[in-house]
Specification:
The protein is of the alpha+beta class. It is 41% helix and 13% strand. Strands 1, 2, 3, 4, 7, 8, 9, 10 and 11 form a nine-stranded mixed beta sheet that branches. The radius of gyration is 22 Å and the shape is globular.
């Protein structure tokens, strides 16, 4: 995401912001009222201000002051260490990735009883079932899922229609379309291949899961050497070698190629939705047709939220679920705060960046689609604002909001979230994919290498 969480896999890359001691809405808070310290990884200044406004409403209704501190997620580990040493841990950490949540759990810092109590109060059936699964471990609710961004395959609907091609939602259809539309003027597909980039990890992980390739089996043993994983490496490596562009591809280059009209397909996060519509000045579509019609690509792009490989049992989507994490020694008011942010404050929370904040709480018991319906009416964009519903057809928005229930992730459902985070952090799959494309190593050797390296890392972690 191009805005601290804008490119898939680059959750937060800026340094720690000096945004501390942001008081609640009341200038004076009674001496016996609680003061909640809340950390957020939504650390862009404008977003911090928006979050503070929502939290001011909580203060006005409860008398509980909220001290908001914005921290870049890549700084979180070091800040947590120093704060723990000083006895100054926060009550709540918001907008935290699944990897971050699993690290807090591994370190014994989460109040899981409080998280479970909030979910029960709000109603578990009002949440996306997959979001609750991904924020749980062995039946224990670790945090309260707040929102998500999804990873999509974007494709030129106009070119597909002209060529009579099927929707690219299977390995077979994707390869057929890439082969048909690949030419000297246009790549059949552009997707991540950079060897030291989490974007490559996340893109490949979706294709792997689509083919039934899991990081570990139910018993916890590494399974990257399986036939399903070998098939995934073979498909992804060949696809990007034969029908893409030369050189390492990342979030910036893949977006640029698709926006220039130089690629028929790309894989990107839902944060592309506003840019595709020409709502961000530093990331505008540049295709020949876009000069006269900045909305051309948005109008002529189809979206696939889940892909299926020949060895997969069901289609697989990929996305990041972020959550509210209540820490072990938190104030009792922390539960009320999180419940507020997921209730009265939820629509405003989603409005911070609706293109990358898909609702995982879809509604309430009284109105089961309240928040998913409201999301479709929110304005997206940075330099220009527009209703998502004015840019994309209703069926596209429905597919986007449903996508969270198709999310799959390596390791997390099997209770191996820490291993999955370590595998991703070591860029094992991205480096192997880059070697496949540049050096031509076989899929069999690629899967065997991934298996060996993952097993070694698992041993190093003592798992």
């Amino acid at each position: 995401m191009q805005n601290q969480r804008r490119a898939v896999g680059s959750l937060v890359a800026a340094a720690l912001l000096a945004v501390t001691a942001c008081s609640g809405g009341n200038d004076e808070v009674s001496p016996d009222s609680d003061v909640l310290t809340v950390w957020t990884t939504e650390d862009i200044a404008s977003r911090v201000a928006t979050q503070q406004a929502i939290m001011d409403r909580f203060t006005e209704s409860t008398g509980t002051e909220v001290e908001l501190v914005a921290i870049a997620e890549d700084q979180l580990t070091s800040v947590l260490s120093s704060s723990a040493a000083a006895g100054e841990l926060p009550d709540v950490i918001g907008a935290l990735s699944l990897n971050g949540m699993n690290q807090l759990y591994t370190d014994g810092l989460l109040n899981t009883d409080a998280a479970a109590a909030v979910v029960e109060e709000l109603g578990a059936d009002t949440f996306s079932s997959r979001s609750l699964e991904l924020t749980s471990s062995e039946g224990e609710q670790l945090s309260v899922p707040s929102d998500a961004y999804a990873q999509f395959l974007f494709y030129r609907q106009d070119l597909f229609d002209q060529a009579g091609l099927e929707v690219p939602d299977t390995y077979e259809a994707i390869e057929a379309a890439a082969q048909e539309l690949n030419s000297d003027e246009m790549a059949g597909i552009v997707a991540a291949t950079a060897p030291a980039d989490s974007f490559t990890q996340q893109t490949f992980e979706q294709f792997a899961l689509a083919n039934g390739c899991e990081l570990v089996g139910e018993g916890g043993d590494v399974t990257l050497g399986s036939d399903q994983c070998q098939g995934a490496f073979d498909f992804y490596g060949n696809l990007l070698r034969d029908y893409s562009v030369p050189g390492n591809q990342d979030a910036d280059t893949t977006r640029a190629s698709y926006f220039a009209g130089d690629a028929a397909m790309t894989v990107w996060s839902s944060f592309l939705l506003d840019e595709l519509a020409g709502l961000r000045s530093d990331a505008l579509p540049t295709c020949p047709e876009c000069t006269d019609d900045p909305g051309f690509l948005a109008a002529n792009t189809g979206i696939v939220s889940a892909i299926q490989g020949p060895d997969g049992d069901e289609p697989a989507g990929y996305g990041e679920v972020v959550s509210w994490n209540i820490l072990s020694d938190s104030s009792p008011a922390a539960e009320d705060f999180v419940a507020f942010m997921m209730g009265d404050g939820y629509q405003d929370w989603l409005a911070v960046a609706p293109e990358g904040k898909l609702p995982v709480r879809l509604g309430t018991a009284e109105n089961p689609t309240e928040y998913s319906d409201a999301w479709q009416t929110l304005e997206a964009g940075v330099d220009t604002k527009a209703l998502l519903s004015s840019v994309y057809p209703a069926e596209t928005l429905e597919e986007i909001t449903r996508s969270t229930d198709q999310f799959k992730r390596w390791g997390i459902p099997q209770g191996q979230g820490a291993l999955a985070a370590a595998i991703g952090g070591q860029f094992i799959a991205p480096q192997i994919i880059a070697s496949m494309i540049s050096s031509g190593i076989s899929a069999e050797d690629a899967a065997a290498q991934a298996q060996e390296e993952a097993e070694t890392l698992k041993d190093d972690l003592g798992q």
